[in-house]
Amino acid sequence: MTTPAAETAGDVVLRLTDVVKTFPGVRALDGVQLEVRAGEVHCLLGQNGAGKSTLIKVLAGVHHADDGEIIWLGETFAPATPQAAMRAGIATIYQELDLVDDLSVAENAFLGHEEARFGFTRRRSAADKTREILARLGHAEISPRTKVHSLPAAGKQIVSMARALSHDAKLIVMDEPSAVLAHDEVANLFRIIRELTAQGIAVIYISHRLAEIREIGDRVTVLKDGRTTASNLPAKSTPTRELVGKMTGRSIEYVFPPRPARPEKPPILVVEGLTRHGEFVDASLTVAPGEIVGIAGLVGSGRSELLETIFGARRADAGTITMDGQRITGVGRAVKKGIGMAPEERKSQALLLDEPVYKNMTLSSFAGFARAGFTAARDERAAALKTADLLELRPRDVDRPARTLSGGNQQKVVVGRWLLDQTRLLLLDEPTRGVDVGARAELYQVIRGLADDGVGVLLVSSEVPEVLGLADRVLVMREGRIIHEAPADELDEDTVLDLVMAGSLLEGEPA
Amino acid sequence: TSNDPGTDAQVKTNSSGDANAAPGTKVVIGFSAPAADHGWIAAITNNAKAQAAAYSDVELKTVEAGADAAAQRAALATLIAQKPTVIVMLPHDGKELNATGLEAMRAGIPVVNLDRAFPSAAAYRLQIKGDNYGMGLAAGQYIGEQLKAKGVTNPIIGEIPGIDSLELTQERTQGFNTALATFGFKVANRRPAEFTADSGQAAATALLQALPKMDALWNHDDDQGIGVLAAIKQANRSEFFMVGGAGSKAAIDSIAKDDSVLKATVTYSPSMASSAISLARLIGQGKGMSDLVELQVPKEITLASETITKDNASKYEKLGF
Amino acid sequence: MITETAPPEVRSSPKKRLDDNAVRNLGLVGVLVVLVIIGIVTKPDLYSDPTWVRNNFLTILQQASAIGVVTVGMTFVIIGGGIDLSVGAIIALAGVWCTTLATQSYGAAGMIFTALVVGIAVGLVNGVLISYGRLVPFIATLAMLVSARGLAAQISGKQTQVSANDTINGIATTKLLGVPLLVWILAVVVAAGWVLLNRTTFGRRTVAVGGNPEAARLAGINVKRHTVLLYALSGLCCGIAAIMLTSQATSAQAAMANLYELDAIAAAIIGGTLLSGGRGTIIGALFGVLVFSTITNLFAINNLSTEVQNMVKGGIIVAAVLIQQFRYRSLTQLLKR
Amino acid sequence: MITETAPPEVRSSPKKRLDDNAVRNLGLVGVLVVLVIIGIVTKPDLYSDPTWVRNNFLTILQQASAIGVVTVGMTFVIIGGGIDLSVGAIIALAGVWCTTLATQSYGAAGMIFTALVVGIAVGLVNGVLISYGRLVPFIATLAMLVSARGLAAQISGKQTQVSANDTINGIATTKLLGVPLLVWILAVVVAAGWVLLNRTTFGRRTVAVGGNPEAARLAGINVKRHTVLLYALSGLCCGIAAIMLTSQATSAQAAMANLYELDAIAAAIIGGTLLSGGRGTIIGALFGVLVFSTITNLFAINNLSTEVQNMVKGGIIVAAVLIQQFRYRSLTQLLKR
Ligand SMILES: Nc1ncnc2c1ncn2[C@@H]1O[C@H](COP(=O)(O)OP(=O)(O)OP(=O)(O)O)[C@@H](O)[C@H]1O
Ligand SMILES: Nc1ncnc2c1ncn2[C@@H]1O[C@H](COP(=O)(O)OP(=O)(O)OP(=O)(O)O)[C@@H](O)[C@H]1O
Ligand SMILES: [Mg+2]
Ligand SMILES: [Mg+2]
């Protein structure tokens, strides 16, 4: 990656003026201004559905702007195809993983611009280059020949990054790259971003985590309802209140709801000695009514698998799961006993993308609304609208197909599904992934409210502050084992981080 | 089976000087036969058209019958609505079109059934058909006699029928087995094809593989026989002789030339379509067949299956399709 | 915590999805109208006779009835993420089984019962192989196609079995209020199918299972059991169609309903059903069937030769889908404004 | 806040997929072995003759050759997310076109050229209709099936057209190193297909287009053009197969290669190709074809009647897939440890 001398940090490489993009029924971009300089990390902030992903897709040649002007390296720029954008030096890491499962890591990294001679792929050369990039990314242990579908989500994110780096890009756009990354992975990502910017490459960085923006960002542009509400704010020094205010048009304090005192109750869920070979070993835990139990751990520590097994979606190799003293053996039984689960991957595991939002929200409860097998669409819509209001779904329209919702809003639909049900135990896997600050506070409130109504909650999150702030009791998982358990207020972030990374703070714990 | 679509009338039944040949009242003949993807059926349609063209008092309304019995029922429904004087039809399946035959007869339109009989006698005025059972008999008879003459006592006989789910195939096979049984012979292996050359090739290849040595082979259909003969050549086999079926031009030529294992074919002549048109005209005009004493055309006519060999091939040349 | 909550004003188009389907179906109606106009232009004499026109209309419907019933079942299977290549074979097996001399001795009720039970049973086997045997639907039902036709040939001894039962044979000739009974049966099946798909939990599950089986499973739907039911439903429709066809032909045989699978799948897809599952409409499927049966009718009254028929038919199918798409796109464009 | 640490390892199971395919193919080899053993047990006399065994082996391969070539093209189309129902019809059209008297007058080269051009041209039309006309592949190629067979019937006047060209007819009788030329052609096409799929950008892009079209588009692949090429490739394979079949039957007609589409799709799927696209192997498809052709051979040497044959065939297909799955699961279980 060579950088011409003319483009040292500070020169404006990209300028957007009054960019407009409409979808059927939605004005996703309604006059966006953006200015990005070489060598800077420019952060985009905005609520779910503010238009961030749409904006970067316009830059990447996926969507075409209806109006407005884009100047890239001093010239008017309107990429007709993703390839045109890439050729012009803009590489993109999309919010939704865009990999081909049955191709190898190297093939994915170089898809569309293969290392080839006369149409024949040069596998060795591609593998070497990929290995080099992966090493730069700190993941030399990923083999370029591995098929992508055998990688966990975090691994896929790294391949997406490798793909972006495989282009000789002058601007790299990252749409919520940290959403599927754990704490330490984020640190690694930042190391790479710093390397890139040191070479004069510009980075547009999108995230809902303010802390990240403070750490890595240089300047911030805020979007609200498709409009730029503030540009070029200093990332490190702009007060949170101001940022949030520009995003939401109101002020939000980012706090967790208080933990009410709770009378001891016998647990509703008892898990004993649960094991799935290669995923987790001998997991035992309990959840009482009204209690929120959090599970912290690294990506790949087996938390999702544990949750899915408790829900009956995976068959346990050993151990028992009992709800109200009765064994849970399959999803059907679990749902009947009042267990609900919001899975981790919304697109592949949770949504019917072509169905309207309300049908997605009632996917687990429509039978409850039905009379004698006949569905009650009116009741379902009304209930879904209520939940939509509660979670600030935007647009506030439960009839549009789930596909047309922004990522964070899709997540709200998934979580909202179980708020409608007669759920007594809720399993939440990364419930706030991609959810914006305002809605997140609201979601915390809702989860706590459910607990106050007597629902037991088992919460998996890669954000340690979230687990600590929301849960009553915290379990720490590492490499498939539950290595520590304590009330949330007896733990702090450093302790948990140290634990999950096999630190030494609590010596004597089983490893 | 030739590369030129033969459109000329194959046979004329009305010799000159016959009173029946003189133009009479105008007759509209509705005609329906299954979609022709096979030489024999194509010849049926062509013969019917040519024969009708030979009469100045006949108008032929053909309706295409599509791919199956249901399509043919639909086509005939539109034909009946047009009220032709007589309907000539070669049904996909006689039983499946029985109801349609009844409907036409009830509507006052005499029905001439070609080749595939209706079970109910009220469904047709005239039935003219080839003799599938007799065809099998003839083939079996020929094979039996030849083998007996050669003194083969325990012959290995192969059979390649056409589409096996058709009733006509069953009848041919039954006739064949019956005739062989009179000689104390039976079929060693039977591989059905689909009346096409490529399926004939595939079936014959399989059969030849299963029977490393064979004495005689009956292939029900000369069209698929092209493929059967190709397979025999490809397998380099010649220790047996073969009998064909239906009587295509190519088969008759080959028998006459005696240049392959094909030594005979048993006829199932598409000329019946020509006869059907002639007789339909007579029915429409209320006349009888001049060589019969009866004043009306009889109700059933079954054509005999003949055996074409090198000796009589020249006689049949112009009957080949 | 949170101050001032004003939900953002966003323009949206409620009921948009409904319109999509309506527009699609409208496109098919347009295609039908065009076909009829072609008929009028090419055969003005026939179309000038109102009795003939009425009769012709009923004939088209009647010819569409059996395949229409099959298509309803097929639509469910496809929406549920599967495919059923064995429908024609099931009809043949059910038809042959219900016309054996033994079955016929039980009278019309016995024959109908037999056809329906055979249809459902074969459908259940399909479903179990696919759900619990984890066979790809294409392969499982293809295997069933081959086997069921073989069994039908075995049972019938490859003979065409004539139905001697006047009640059964009468189904094809009976009219109610001037409309053939077969058309009434189609109407009832379509109506029931529509209600089942759009107004019942069964229909909702079908869409979920086909649209995203993993999501359906995690939402607590018993995907395997539901899949079995879908194939059984298709089998049931085949059983009904077998009776209709047997009545029309007053007979049954192992080769009957040949290639119905292709026709039914094509009609469902033309009607807007997604081959990959999760989306589809019963009304659209019905229109798909009607388009095919109107094309056949058009060919018949114009007496096109089979080869020309076939060449033209392919073109019409393509044109129909293109017209439909065109209308669809331009209409949704209009709706946008 | 965020502290720099060495990034954690992303665990994965290397080479797992490679083994998947190998294991799957191993399962099919197992099925083939079982079929041969059944042959030996039922016909020990035939199998005691080594010349016959060798011949039989070559015959099986030879009978698999044309459909094998078609299946290679079909596998590409399916991996690329499509389906081609028109393969049989393309063969018929190419076969008929190349055996008209006019074409035959240009000699063998003219005939071969005609067959290939017709195949590619029809494939291109398919591809354009699907890519640019946005027709569902199922419908577009079904329409093509109907039209192309109609055109073939028109051209041939519904007659069986005999090939009088000895070079063409000789293809089926020629042997090279004791192996029939037809088998060599199959071998070359399979090898070329394997290289094309696994070692070229075209192949890798095919997987991307079928596995995740959106990702392929985002990676700058021209999905539409690629789709067109895939159908053209399938058409080319059909053109080759048309020559092979014409040579075998020394003739061509409009009804030839009947239902090849079902056989080719079934073989591809049994060979491990995902009907929804994005995954598949050429070697597996070849094994799939061989399984079918070995079954036919087994039936022939045991002289099974058609109806029994069909009943058993369905069962064997199901059993084959189940065996393969069983082996697959248990072997991957073993590999896991
Ligand atoms: N293909 C589409 N069709 C219709 N509407 C769309 C489409 N894609 C996005 N939208 C709409 O455009 C708006 C902006 O969406 P976008 O994905 O850009 O939001 P975002 O800022 O990235 O949100 P998030 O933080 O949740 O990812 C949303 O209202 C969304 O529903
Ligand atoms: N598709 C896959 N194929 C093979 N192994 C996988 C796959 N997905 C996950 N794993 C393995 O399963 C284990 C747990 O993975 P997973 O990432 O789901 O855990 P997690 O704790 O839920 O992390 P996250 O917070 O990212 O969900 C790891 O060993 C991982 O390598
Ligand atoms: Mg986004
Ligand atoms: Mg997880």
From TrEMBL, chain A:
<dbReference type="InterPro" id="IPR027417">
    <property type="entry name" value="P-loop_NTPase"/>
</dbReference>
<dbReference type="GO" id="GO:0005524">
    <property type="term" value="F:ATP binding"/>
</dbReference>
<keyword id="KW-0547">Nucleotide-binding</keyword>
<keyword id="KW-0813">Transport</keyword>
<dbReference type="Pfam" id="PF00005">
    <property type="entry name" value="ABC_tran"/>
</dbReference>
<dbReference type="InterPro" id="IPR003593">
    <property type="entry name" value="AAA+_ATPase"/>
</dbReference>
<dbReference type="InterPro" id="IPR050107">
    <property type="entry name" value="ABC_carbohydrate_import_ATPase"/>
</dbReference>
<dbReference type="InterPro" id="IPR017871">
    <property type="entry name" value="ABC_transporter-like_CS"/>
</dbReference>
<keyword id="KW-0677">Repeat</keyword>
<protein>
    <submittedName>
        <fullName>Sugar ABC transporter ATP-binding protein</fullName>
    </submittedName>
</protein>
<keyword id="KW-0067">ATP-binding</keyword>
<feature type="domain" description="ABC transporter">
    <location>
        <begin position="14"/>
        <end position="250"/>
    </location>
</feature>
<dbReference type="InterPro" id="IPR003439">
    <property type="entry name" value="ABC_transporter-like_ATP-bd"/>
</dbReference>
<feature type="domain" description="ABC transporter">
    <location>
        <begin position="263"/>
        <end position="504"/>
    </location>
</feature>
From TrEMBL, chains C, D:
<feature type="transmembrane region" description="Helical">
    <location>
        <begin position="85"/>
        <end position="102"/>
    </location>
</feature>
<protein>
    <submittedName>
        <fullName>ABC transporter permease</fullName>
    </submittedName>
</protein>
<feature type="transmembrane region" description="Helical">
    <location>
        <begin position="228"/>
        <end position="245"/>
    </location>
</feature>
<feature type="transmembrane region" description="Helical">
    <location>
        <begin position="136"/>
        <end position="156"/>
    </location>
</feature>
<keyword id="KW-0472">Membrane</keyword>
<feature type="transmembrane region" description="Helical">
    <location>
        <begin position="108"/>
        <end position="129"/>
    </location>
</feature>
<feature type="transmembrane region" description="Helical">
    <location>
        <begin position="60"/>
        <end position="78"/>
    </location>
</feature>
<keyword id="KW-0812">Transmembrane</keyword>
<dbReference type="InterPro" id="IPR001851">
    <property type="entry name" value="ABC_transp_permease"/>
</dbReference>
<feature type="transmembrane region" description="Helical">
    <location>
        <begin position="21"/>
        <end position="40"/>
    </location>
</feature>
<feature type="transmembrane region" description="Helical">
    <location>
        <begin position="282"/>
        <end position="305"/>
    </location>
</feature>
<keyword id="KW-1003">Cell membrane</keyword>
<dbReference type="Pfam" id="PF02653">
    <property type="entry name" value="BPD_transp_2"/>
</dbReference>
<feature type="transmembrane region" description="Helical">
    <location>
        <begin position="176"/>
        <end position="197"/>
    </location>
</feature>
<keyword id="KW-1133">Transmembrane helix</keyword>
